[in-house]
Amino acid sequence: MGKDVLGTVYETLLCSPGMNEAVKIDQKISRKTVLLLSGVIERSLKEGATVGDDLVGIVPAEDIGALKKFSDECLEKAGLKQLQDKLKALQK
Fold first, then answer.
1. Which of 6, 42, 63, 90 is most buried, most CB within 10 Å of its CB?
2. For residues 54 and 3, is the Cβ–Cβ distance under 8 A?
3. Which superkingdom heads the taxonomic lineage of this protein's source (predicted)?
């Protein structure tokens, strides 16, 4: 499936009825997974990122903000927010 077709499929799915409805997910995951997931989300949403450009390029700005907020909430709930901030400082 070509990038253009895949992009069109995702755009269609994101616009489908009910996609903006809140969904409660009760999932227990390890702190390691939370930290890795947060890193993947953050790197994917950086300006100039090459990973997943075809998908991130079609995501509306407000949804990108929601992904960042979700990532931050996961870190906070796992007690990893300060650790993530220190890791970011080391990367600079």
1. 42
2. yes
3. Bacteria
Confidence (pLDDT) at 2: 66
Q: How confident is the model at residue 3 (pLDDT cuts 50, 70, 90)?
A: low
Taking the C-alpha atoms of residue 32 and residue 5, their distance in angstroms, rounded to an integer, is 35
Cα–Cα distance for residue pair 85/42, rounded to 1 Å:
12
Query: What ranges do the domains of the chain cover?
Result: 28-91
| Dihedral angle over CA of 14, 15, 21, 23, nearest 10 | -20
Asked if residue 71 lies in contact with residue 41, where contact means CB atoms within 8 angstroms, the answer is: yes
Q: Which of 43, 44, 40, 38 is nearest to 79 (CA)?
A: 38
Residue with tokens 């996961």: 74
Tokens of 39: 């890193």
Q: What is the DSSP string of 74-86?
A: HHHHTT-HHHHHH
